[in-house]
């Protein structure tokens, strides 16, 4: 159990007084986890620590069933009541317990809604569950190639792992688009992205194709039924380069993967060009207000 904790503490296990200890299940229910503080006083912990205690007990039992060829551990949302750092430590503990692929002695299935956990799991070990279907992301099931997996393992961090849980995705180049698009959507379209499960993912560059390939099959057809839009700057790319980008991301029916390129050099210039009069009026009025006697 101490391997699951952020810091070493004096662990005290106690049984809560009760009548029926005849069944092991009832015995576990009576088990309580306490920690001794620096003052020597015992302190009761919350549900997160109690969950860790239960999972540690199950893992201990599984590790001792060496003659069982089909040992499987299924954990539902281990992030419940756990601090983000505890979530990461819990996952590391599971990885260390499993060991190298060739020496694994049981399988572990984890269902989660935690970007903290999903960002730490190799992409090929993830299944996306949506619309009563489960889609494996292992090599051969997606359009991703070996170098794509390596790239995404490095750069698909907790801020981007929201893509595993969204009902719709908008991939953008940087922080400007990530901040301004929800406002535009709300003020112009009266469409609140978060209310419809749409996430904006900042890819911090131009790696749109790598991220879109997560949701495609080996022939670049749409595989996972999640709508995707990619919004990128035109920059200095010519029409031929833009066409190649669309060829890799946009696909045939149901036509849910789309690419949108700014008319001007970048989105900011396009926005200013389309709203030049409004922006000038705002600046003029602000200047007058500041200089009013």
What does this structure look like?
The protein is of the alpha/beta class and 293 residues long. It contains 10 helices and 11 strands. Helix content is 37%, strand content 18%. Strands 9-8-10-11 form a 4-stranded parallel beta sheet, with helices on both faces. A 3-stranded antiparallel beta sheet has the order 1-2-3. The radius of gyration is 26 Å and the shape is globular. The mean pLDDT is 79.
Topology:
Elements: E1 10-15, H1 24-29, E2 31-36, E3 42-44, H2 47-64, E4 72-76, H3 84-98, E5 107-111, H4 115-118, E6 127-130, E7 133-136, H5 146-155, E8 168-172, H6 175-189, E9 198-202, H7 208-212, E10 228-232, H8 239-249, E11 257-261, H9 267-274, H10 276-290
Parallel strand pairs: 4-5, 8-9, 8-10, 10-11
Antiparallel strand pairs: 1-2, 2-3, 6-7
